[in-house]
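To fix ideas, we close by showing one paired sequence and structure record:
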Amino acid sequence: MNTRIRIDFVSDVSCPWCAVGLQTLEAALVLLGDKVKAEVHFQPFELNPKMPAEGQEISAHLMEKYGLTRDQYEQNTEAMRERGERVGFTFGVGKRSRIYNTFDAHRLLHWAGLEGRQQTLKHELFKTYFTDGEDPSSHDVLVGVAERVGLNGTRAREILLSDEFGSEVRELERYYLDQGINAVPSVIFNERQLIRGAQPLDVFVEALNHIADDQ
């Protein structure tokens, strides 16, 4: 059996649990083997749409946004690092110091979807920010990421220097907000079943098995 499943992965480049969630979802798909054939689409969501170009120091931002103490922030950071390690994703210790605006990264991801490189670009963006600590709002960084996954760097820079795909990204962001998506990752199966958050492997496996058996 080879059940086709559409998966919309709503996420932000600056969301660490989105990186963990993607690794876990993909591990679940590997476990199911030929039982399902997934078509994954990455949909835009900005955790900090009003973030200025210079970004904000990460610990100050998260402590302010979520009301965390310094100890709670450090505990959460370590828990995230350990969870990433368990699913094969590396959070670079001490690499990431600021949170940035991610709108341009979402515009590149939209273009990459048209070019058949969206999933590869998504992985590289996560690595660039969370593992290597680079700035995902920098045009030079984004062009380099695009080139590393086989996209045309000149075309990537043209897009970044224009407003191309901006209206498409904003329309998709509004659509998912209107559907009640207010936190990420949010994983939608066949446009009707939703799993919120970076759930454990067995949650994704159970959901995929259930959908495949129903179809």
